[in-house]
Amino acid sequence: MRKRLFIVRTPLQFFNAFEAMQRFAELNAENELLVVYGSQADLNIIQSMLKTLSGWSRIIYQPFMGWKKKFYAFQLKKHFHNNSYYEHLFTGMIHHIPLHLMNCLNVDNYWLIDDGNETRMIVDHLNRGSYYNKDRSQPLFAIQQNPQVLKQLKLFTLYDDLKTEHTLLVNDYRYFKTQVSQLDVKKNHVLLIGSNLVETYLKSEADYLEILTQFKQQMPNCIVYYAPHRYLNKNTLNAIEALGYKILKYETILELFQYEQGWCFEGYYSIRSTAIDTLAQLYAIQGSYIRLPETYFVNHQKWQECNEIWNTAKQVIQLAPR
Question: Is it the case that residue 284 has pLDDT exceeding 80?
Fold first, then answer.
């Protein structure tokens, strides 16, 4: 019996894991899903997505928070015996639980699946070899973290522009696109896709609201929706709504929600959300990134990180100077 293990932590990783399951589908193969969740919000979204993205042989839920961050090796033994054989192991992250299982299981092929901008950063570290310098195993807790296995990683990714010596198989979402009929496009309806930016990338909420105000002023003839990041607090959301945005309410990820709602926006915009890239691939509507000046950012490094995204984007807009 051929077995595959898919380890996911975020909703986007799960969406890409489902596509990988279909791409590598074989008769009578077993596809096991390990959901590692660090927040109840992520778990709720993934469980909602499972109503559509189904067909798993086994689903295991593993919390990764509090004391369970230390004792996961003992908990996982209930589900995975040492040296159990898997033909493929897919993961969107490469530390902690995935790396532990990569060291414990007998696997033919290790695959990295996409998790937005995080994937580009992982590949950059793989190229520089910085992951291989330290073994963070903890024998007291039976945790194995030997990083040398990461040298065998293959990439299943949307990003065909990645420069790497690792084997790369392009994820063109061929399975999901066969399930999506041609959706209607609502003219003059545009969507601004939010990210977790305030105080992590941008200096303040006031700066973010100023950016949103400028953006809306540049769309005078459009109905502008805002898709909130799942970690956005309610006060900020209320402030965005007060600016005249219609708040998009959804319990999944945008890539799947477009299919479920039955229509597409005419335009998609974001400062750094890679939903711009995946939506373009899935629904053939090329969105735009919003380039911002460095003065908005908490430091040069965060601005430069976004700059690298904008420099490789197919479409970028700029806001009017403040």
Answer: yes
CB 248 within 8 A of CB 229: no
Q: Please write down the long-range contacts of 151-156, taking CB distance under 8 Å and 24 or more positions apart.
A: 152/110, 153/94, 153/110, 153/111, 153/112, 153/126, 154/109, 154/110, 154/111, 154/112, 155/111, 155/112, 155/123, 156/16, 156/20, 156/23, 156/90, 156/111, 156/112, 156/113, 156/114
How far is it, in rounded angstroms, from Cα 237 to Cα 175? 35
Secondary structure E strands in 138-262: 153-157, 168-170, 184-193, 223-227, 246-247
Question: What beta strand segments (E) does the chain contain?
Answer: 3-8, 30-37, 58-63, 85-91, 106-113, 153-157, 168-170, 184-193, 223-227, 246-247, 263-270, 288-291, 316-318
**Cα–Cα distance, 99 to 152 (Å, whole number):** 12
- 8 Å CB contact between 212 and 192: yes
Per residue in 40-87, pLDDT tens?
Answer: 989 999 999 999 999 999 999 999 998 888 999 999 999 999 899 999
Res. 322 pLDDT band, cuts 50 70 90? low
Tell me whether strands 263-270 and 246-247 are parallel, antiparallel or unpaired: unpaired
pTM assigned to the model: 0.89
CB neighbours of residue 275 within 10 Å: 22
Pair of tokens at residue 188: 């003059």
